[in-house]
Design goal:
- With about 90 residues, the protein is an all-alpha fold.
- About 55% of the residues lie in helices and about 0% in strands.
- It has one domain (about 10-80).
- The protein contains five helices and no strands.
- The radius of gyration is 13 Å and the shape is globular.
Length: about 90
């Protein structure tokens, strides 16, 4: 069995997240400008998560989001705020 906390992605850690982060925390970091290095690292780590052994414990969605350019994330963050259930 693979523990997703033991494999916490370096790209997410470099953005200030740690295991157990909330969706609100994730939304906040996606508004930050990300360097090409972090976006490329996130893509590499996303690629490594494609193994079927990680299907039930992976970071694919988070890493794919972090690997995108900031311009795309700005549009998605606006959408998420408009449709959020959080106060």
């Amino acid at each position: 069995m693979y523990n997703r906390m033991d494999r916490f992605p370096r790209a997410l850690a470099l953005l200030g997240l740690s295991p157990g982060f909330t969706q609100r925390q994730f939304n906040e970091i996606t508004q930050l400008e990300r360097s090409d290095y972090i976006r490329e690292l996130a893509h590499q780590e996303w690629s490594q998560e494609q193994d079927p052994k990680y299907d039930d414990a992976n970071w694919r969605w988070h890493l794919s989001y972090v690997s995108m350019t900031n311009e795309i994330n700005v549009d998605m963050n606006w959408y998420n705020r408009q449709n959020s259930q959080e106060p």
